Here is the input.
Amino acid sequence: MNPDTRQKLMGVSTATLCTALFKRGLVHQFIQDVRPLNPSLPNMVGEAYTLRYMPAREDLNTIEVFKNREHPQRKAVEECPPGAVFVIDSRKDARAASAGGILVSRLMKRGVAGIVSDGGFRDSPDIAKMPFPVYHQRPAAPTNLTIHQAIDINVPIGCGDAPVFPGDVVVGDGEGVVVIPAHLADEVAAEAAEMTAFEDFVQERVMAGQSILGLYPPTDEANRVAFEAWRKAKGR
Amino acid sequence: MNPDTRQKLMGVSTATLCTALFKRGLVHQFIQDVRPLNPSLPNMVGEAYTLRYMPAREDLNTIEVFKNREHPQRKAVEECPPGAVFVIDSRKDARAASAGGILVSRLMKRGVAGIVSDGGFRDSPDIAKMPFPVYHQRPAAPTNLTIHQAIDINVPIGCGDAPVFPGDVVVGDGEGVVVIPAHLADEVAAEAAEMTAFEDFVQERVMAGQSILGLYPPTDEANRVAFEAWRKAKGR
Amino acid sequence: MNPDTRQKLMGVSTATLCTALFKRGLVHQFIQDVRPLNPSLPNMVGEAYTLRYMPAREDLNTIEVFKNREHPQRKAVEECPPGAVFVIDSRKDARAASAGGILVSRLMKRGVAGIVSDGGFRDSPDIAKMPFPVYHQRPAAPTNLTIHQAIDINVPIGCGDAPVFPGDVVVGDGEGVVVIPAHLADEVAAEAAEMTAFEDFVQERVMAGQSILGLYPPTDEANRVAFEAWRKAKGR
Amino acid sequence: MNPDTRQKLMGVSTATLCTALFKRGLVHQFIQDVRPLNPSLPNMVGEAYTLRYMPAREDLNTIEVFKNREHPQRKAVEECPPGAVFVIDSRKDARAASAGGILVSRLMKRGVAGIVSDGGFRDSPDIAKMPFPVYHQRPAAPTNLTIHQAIDINVPIGCGDAPVFPGDVVVGDGEGVVVIPAHLADEVAAEAAEMTAFEDFVQERVMAGQSILGLYPPTDEANRVAFEAWRKAKGR
Amino acid sequence: MNPDTRQKLMGVSTATLCTALFKRGLVHQFIQDVRPLNPSLPNMVGEAYTLRYMPAREDLNTIEVFKNREHPQRKAVEECPPGAVFVIDSRKDARAASAGGILVSRLMKRGVAGIVSDGGFRDSPDIAKMPFPVYHQRPAAPTNLTIHQAIDINVPIGCGDAPVFPGDVVVGDGEGVVVIPAHLADEVAAEAAEMTAFEDFVQERVMAGQSILGLYPPTDEANRVAFEAWRKAKGR
Amino acid sequence: MNPDTRQKLMGVSTATLCTALFKRGLVHQFIQDVRPLNPSLPNMVGEAYTLRYMPAREDLNTIEVFKNREHPQRKAVEECPPGAVFVIDSRKDARAASAGGILVSRLMKRGVAGIVSDGGFRDSPDIAKMPFPVYHQRPAAPTNLTIHQAIDINVPIGCGDAPVFPGDVVVGDGEGVVVIPAHLADEVAAEAAEMTAFEDFVQERVMAGQSILGLYPPTDEANRVAFEAWRKAKGR
Here is the structure.
């Protein structure tokens, strides 16, 4: 990823990114119904590396399967590139875990940028204390083998009803996670950074008592002028 | 609203209010499945001012529509009376936002008492830090245009399966939000204040080790006597 | 309960217990979709004492019914043994409360170990401040009479899709609640304590940068040796 | 059951019965989300005989358990009184069967009046061909042991969110199933029979082109007179 | 409505209409999760006339309210124009009826084109026998007063997550119901009629054994030629 | 597939197959919440050929994409082997179609054994008239492009929460669809055929008035003897 793009994405919200995508006709890029275990962290930014789960068949998912070093879940954890976001398609099913504290720790230590599952994680109280962005639906203590079988690494998946292609740029904040198609990452990041400057200006004006009419959007010329002055003053 | 009623409602819980309404045969007045973004605030109390969303049709909900000062969402934000609670019927759909941080800030600055949506808000981490009561289902980064179209201002609506008429008295606490029909507000507030005194007495007795039998409800005369003494002692 | 078993269960996670149960073919023992109101407490451990709710019929659930000292909800609150966990089958319905702050306080004062409902509690902000483990789905201000009728005490029930028999050993942590069949409690506690030692070792190794391959599970002999040395060093 | 009451209930609809119950403040007596497998049969009428399922624990629900003649499911099937309606609390879970064609056949042969489950039946294509009223949510081929354990016979239960007490009068038609509290059966049946006569009159008038205003309800005196004349003419 | 448009819409499927709308960027016009009570009827075509329900408040929804000739439900039934489709916003809640057999009969007799609710109808077995198109989610015996209050006539509503404006053209077939924005009705009807001719040709070719590749869509010139010949031969 | 196995599977029910799988510890093989569009057909039997959908991204799913002969949906329809069952992972989402009448016709003409989707089909009234087994959740008129993107052919998938591997043996009847792991197909078919003989005997005895106790299961020796005699008499 372009370092400038990454830096811009560290400073914008998923809300602003969703609006930039909406303008481009993309309305399903927000991963529905996931939340950060630790909401106090900086943004999570990275390219998607994916793991696909299918429903578990009991004979193929005994506790012994993890002895196989080629087991896709374990393999993915060791192969996910540093800087990437590990995105898991858990079919929105949080009745059992997508993974637990040890695998999450390993991904953190390997320099991965963060993790998202539309299911749940186990050891969630421990994960919530890590300085590492992890998003899920809700805690789930049972082992993933109970209902999930890891089946595919780095293929296109769905996560929380959003389409996720390997390499898409994934951004998370305290609100949730958005998926930016790879080819749009630079332009969306740039536009979102611009929008953020404007929204910060508007927020300041609103807190000073100004009406939103003519300001948001800036249909009054005076507000556009004021914004340009504000930018200069703020150096943004 | 009667200032005495407002004051009483600042000091009672939504749980106690629900019981007072239950005694009057009203069992659907608690807004289901909403929670405060900032749970540490005092009660929210005000008369309902409503906004109704319908499902968005794409051609009527481009990003350009907000340039229209008569757009119902923006109009409502500027016209909601100070002291009122802004209640949004989002059809329990949190896939996109009901509103975001800027509009919430504007309502706060305009002296509105609080906001409730049975959908979700964007910029939720920012809203959670405001000294302003806002309730929703879950965070939702996508712009409201994605699935919601603001269509009616200050009409009777549903919110979280509760009926809400403009002017109904809306009360929120750390637990959730209850809607008191306008004509019952004074008597329900008065009764709830009385009930709260009794519940505080009971809670004190229970923490001192007394059984609930005969105490809650006070079928033992001795407990009724003790309560009267307690009231005198406490000046309540 | 065996005091040694209780002590072990105070020191293991529900995640580890679920894995021990999974190895025994039991995959539905985690109570789905409940969470602690106060997530900062030590583990909750105790034998299950149950209360079953059925849907309320209006004529049998007026506010007057609590005047009857034999009302099953009130009776259960006074009869649940100290040290037990009070488990309520609320049919996963949180539209009205399973109980409120006063009954929860009474159970706490009576020495009960904790409470679980697959519905919701009222007075949840107060309960969340108590040094007492309570788990539910979400807050619910309306009185239980609105939709629940207490009908049976200490019978086998379902709670969050888990089977719960009176006397089963119930363990809660910051993640959720698991139900251990009574006859398995000792062996599962012992196995989980062993597993916890190993997981602590693994976590330490992972945080030191080691790969999970060959370590988790320990298919490399070297890791088994290292673990034995670690145990000796740590006295575990 | 009073034979006259039974006869009246054979000739009225669940819709009319729900209205009679609504007038008495009972609004949860319709079993939600169940449908007849064979919608062409006459009404089902009988007193409730209940079976309660809880979530299955795997070690207690092997295929061997049915060898036990005291197994509650099999016992209930042999003991349900002729003329009764067999009502099963399946916790609204149709992922596995509540029962199958053989048990349904046995109940039919034993003279039971019908069966209702808020889960599903297996062998549903066969059951749909029987001259015997059976209601469920949707077909479910897996054996009940998969997720259900029969635990209690003839206790108060919930079925499709309706409260069902043994002895309540259960009525099914092509639309669904309603539960009449035992003590109200005679008066509700009588009232519903009267209402049915009036509704038949109204339907006839509407099909003849009359407006519903003043007719339904009959606020115009002329329509009350016409109804009396119609009753005489029809002998109802 | 243009008679030619109406005639075209009588001969096309909701599936084809959805594709024509999809091409125009409209993807939420199919009313989700409703089905015809009588699936053997010709298409339903008419302009939308709407009724909005909100959650019922008990004191405003006693059985007496229907004595008021101005009650919105009854008023709407008498005022809906012949040829229109009566569309009800029941908030996707089928726990109680949107209406019953008598009101449905009145609408039929008044020449209304059909009825759609995203809730349920009572007297559904009777309605299913009428030569009149009615669509709902599932049968619901309880009177609408139980959970619904009619509040607005002929305003924009949601129905099954689709936006419905008064005057939109509503088309139903054996599959479901689609809502065509008023200003697009003529062009969408024309395009759908053309598409239907082509699909009939394709279906004939496929049944004759031809591959869909190059045929559907007709990327092979030969298939375009064959289609033109087919049209001439068939006079379409 | 072994022709003898296929023949046996044509004569047994999905309910019986589920029990045979349950005995082997496989409890998730029934595809949840799908039903036959035409319930009057013989069993569907074939090996699974799969298609995986992911959530649609708008820019990749314009109406133009079908011009590409390599589009996975169209390719799969032309390549699915005769005799196979075409199984689609639609993520249980029926808001848009999995396919329509023309593709279904093409699969039928190509000799495919049947189709299953856990979403919905468009042109469902036409499909319901075909002599071809098709199973889905509910009708869905919108084109699949609206929410589905075909992404993978013949990979392991989930369908209605069941695991499906290419080559698994899929059986459908009037009740639903079950997935038999490939390596178990012969033995499960044989066992199910035996069980069916016994169940037919039991059903005959039950219809003749015999109790199920001692008969089902046949814990009475006399019933085992009677069954052997019955088999000889029937030649089964």
